[in-house]
Automatic annotation (TrEMBL):
This is Methylated-DNA--protein-cysteine methyltransferase. Residues 4-67 form the Methylguanine DNA methyltransferase ribonuclease-like domain. Residues 72-148 form the Methylated-DNA-[protein]-cysteine S-methyltransferase DNA binding domain. It catalyses: a 6-O-methyl-2'-deoxyguanosine in DNA + L-cysteinyl-[protein] = S-methyl-L-cysteinyl-[protein] + a 2'-deoxyguanosine in DNA; a 4-O-methyl-thymidine in DNA + L-cysteinyl-[protein] = a thymidine in DNA + S-methyl-L-cysteinyl-[protein]. Its main location: cytoplasm. The gene is ogt. HAMAP family: OGT. This enzyme catalyzes only one turnover and therefore is not strictly catalytic. According to one definition, an enzyme is a biocatalyst that acts repeatedly and over many reaction cycles. Belongs to the MGMT family. InterPro entries: MethylDNA_cys_MeTrfase_AS, MethylDNA_cys_MeTrfase_DNA-bd, MethylDNA_cys_MeTrfase_DNAb, MethylG_MeTrfase_N, MGMT, MGMT_N_sf, WH-like_DNA-bd_sf. It comes from the Archaea. Its EC number is 2.1.1.63. It comes from Metallosphaera yellowstonensis MK1. It is found in: Cytoplasm. GO terms for molecular function: methylated-DNA-[protein]-cysteine S-methyltransferase activity.
Length: 151
DNA sequence: TTGACCTGGCCGC
DNA sequence: GCGGCCAGGTCAA
């Protein structure tokens, strides 16, 4: 029996909704889409503490379990991106070379990322600049700034 | 089947 | 240097 838990974290750049199934995070997104009655913030206290530190600009490694997509190609992309540590950035081209694919396909895979921050797709930028972001380039820019990068 | 996506390389000018 | 074209993987329409 799958147990689903919902949490809402208020970050300095907007509300973040977190959803976990059993003990895996299945979604972490910049939106306020949790019904109040369903919230179970206590369950997420460890993660929220880390988010506190993260949004204070401190170096944080997220160690929570996340659910990777079923799609094998995306799994490869996500695993490659998850190797990036706090403050590290790379390009779509570099990720594509590592997994033997094309930058365009990497961008598409990352655009489907449900677990923002945990799969740090904001650390993947275009060669020509910051690149795009499914939740808006503005959020991507702010996240990168927290980690010491200006775009 | 087509077009749209978080890109980049190549070509012609 | 810049604009146009298209390969790349996936999915919604």
């Amino acid at each position: 029996m799958t147990e689903v838990r919902y949490g809402l974290y208020k970050s300095s750049i907007g509300p973040i909704t977190v959803i976990a199934e059993d003990d895996e995070i299945t979604m972490l997104d910049f939106c306020d889409c949790v019904e109040k009655g369903l919230m179970n913030n206590e369950w997420f206290s460890d993660l929220f503490q880390k988010l506190d530190m993260y949004f204070q600009g401190k170096r944080v490694e997220f160690t929570v379990k996340i659910r990777l997509p079923m799609n094998p190609f995306r799994q490869r992309v996500f695993k490659e991106v998850m190797k990036l540590r706090w403050g590290e950035i790379t390009t779509y081209k570099h990720v594509a070379e590592r997994i033997g694919s094309s930058p365009r396909a990497v961008g598409t895979a990352l655009s489907k990322n449900q677990t923002l921050l945990l799969v740090p797709c904001h650390r993947v930028i275009a060669e020509s600049g910051i690149g795009g972001y499914s939740r808006g380039v503005d959020i991507k820019r702010k996240l990168l700034k927290l980690e010491g990068h200006e775009f």
